Amino acid sequence: MLALRAYEAAAKERLPRPVWDFFAGGSGTESMLTAGREALDRIRLRPRCLVDVSHCDPRTELLGADLAAPLGIAPMAYHQLAHPEGEVATARAAGEAGALFTVSMFASRTLEDIAAAATGPLWLQLYWLKRRDLLVDLIHRADAAGFRALVLTVDAPRVAFRPRDAANGFAVPPGIRAVNVAHDVMAASHSGRDGESAIARHSKEQFDASITWEDLAWLREVTSLPVVLKGVLTGEDAELAVKHGVSGLVVSNHGGRQLDFCRSAPDALAEIVDAVAGRCAVVLDGGIRHGADIAKALCLGADAVMVGRPALWGLAHSGAEGVADVLRLLTGEFEEVMALMGAPTVAGFERSGVVLPGCAHA
Ligand SMILES: Cc1cc2nc3c(=O)[nH]c(=O)nc-3n(C[C@H](O)[C@H](O)[C@H](O)COP(=O)(O)O)c2cc1C
Ligand SMILES: O=C(O)C(=O)c1ccccc1
Question: Cross-referenced CDD domains, in alphabetical order (predicted)?
Fold first, then answer.
């Protein structure tokens, strides 16, 4: 069993440099790559003692799905960049570990193959393409394959400028494709040019940057699946989301890959939880690397967290086995934090379990 850090080092060594840069990189000055981590580190836990922690139970429920711990895998494009089995291996691992798996619309394996390998809950992430017929097709296929929710990413009307990808002229290699979306619509993702990311160019061509809150009604008419918005960072937008009938929010700054100099997701969490007031599920992603990070998110009112890059590190290291190990490491650490915090159930984590930065009692 390796530590998460060791999986990161192993992935960096194995992967071609442009792929590593695509996974690890951020937007603009890359200021947000460290911001989320620093925000989590500033939050400190307030343990209670002499609580019966002889049995700690990390299990929970999220939008009706049973999870072994409040943990999932965030949507990430093209898992085959990390391992030939791609999302099929990730799905198998998530199932084994009892974690949620959110599949990117730009997955490199078919929704049907992923669903066949999964034994746990799947959500499907969507970017709003100009070609709405392709969205409808994906949504119907996901529903038929047993996916349980749709996650609309709302922090990326376009893929932001990412200096590493631009410098590498990064393009998706020819053997790997977003197989769930029509060929012609994905073509730009494969044509690299010096000094420009093909993914960023593709997004400017194909994403509909004109959508507004009003368009959510269309999505909710197309499907009866619950809709989750990913990338919400303010109480105002959380309130609007609830008013527009969403079932969940992912509080996220996209792993530092979208708006540079932005507030970090952990810093926004309490404001959003307060605005939502129990009316929809709240998930946190970005920089989750320790069991204690899960505990901090729960104390601030999140229902669960998702990890992004660590899943790709595990996948690059040893396929499904590596991903399952990454998820087990985090779950094991979280179970120990439960014992040491005096919080033997997920419901036992409360706001009083953390000290926030700037607080006089820190
Ligand atoms: C390589 C990579 C690809 C990603 N692709 C997507 C995507 O297709 N859709 C999406 O909503 N977010 C995408 N994200 C963002 C993740 O869902 C998530 O917000 C972020 O990675 C979480 O931070 P972490 O990697 O620090 O755990 C991607 C992130 C990475 C690193
Ligand atoms: O969302 C992302 O961060 C991302 O990297 C991506 C990858 C492929 C297509 C669109 C976005």
Answer: alpha_hydroxyacid_oxid_FMN (cd02809)
| Average pLDDT over every residue of 153-181 | 98
The confidence band for 186, taking pLDDT boundaries of 50, 70 and 90, is very high
Block residue for tokens 């929710």: 149
Please, what is the Cα angle at 73 between 342 and 27, to 5 degrees?
A: 110
Nearest to 99 by CA among 271, 249, 314: 314
The pLDDT of 258-281, averaged and rounded, is 98
- Which pLDDT tens digit goes with each residue over 55-64? 999 999 999 9
- Looking at residue 180, its amino acid is N
Closest Cα partner for 150 from 117, 208, 102? 102
Distance CA 249, CA 237 (A): 10
Task: Go through the domains of the chain in sequence order and give each one's CATH number.
Answer: 4-355 (3.20.20.70)
- What's the CA-to-centroid distance between 141 and ligand 2, angstroms? 21
CA 80 to ligand 1 center in whole angstroms: 15
Closest CA to 308 of 333, 329, 289: 289
Q: Is the CB of 164 under 6 A from ligand 2?
A: no
Can you tell me the distance from the alpha carbon of 207 to that of 157, in angstroms, rounded to the nearest whole number? 6
Contacts of 90 (CB under 8 A, 6+ apart): 73, 79, 101, 311, 315, 320, 323
Indicate the top mutation candidate among 8, 105, 152, 254 to test ligand 1's pocket, ranked by most ligand atoms within 8 A of CB. 254
Catalytic residue among 79, 83, 202, 254: 254
Ligand 2, atom 5, lies closest to the CA of 77
Ligand closest to Cα of 230 equals 1
ipTM greater than 0.85, yes or no? yes
Look up 55 and say whether it is catalytic.
Answer: no
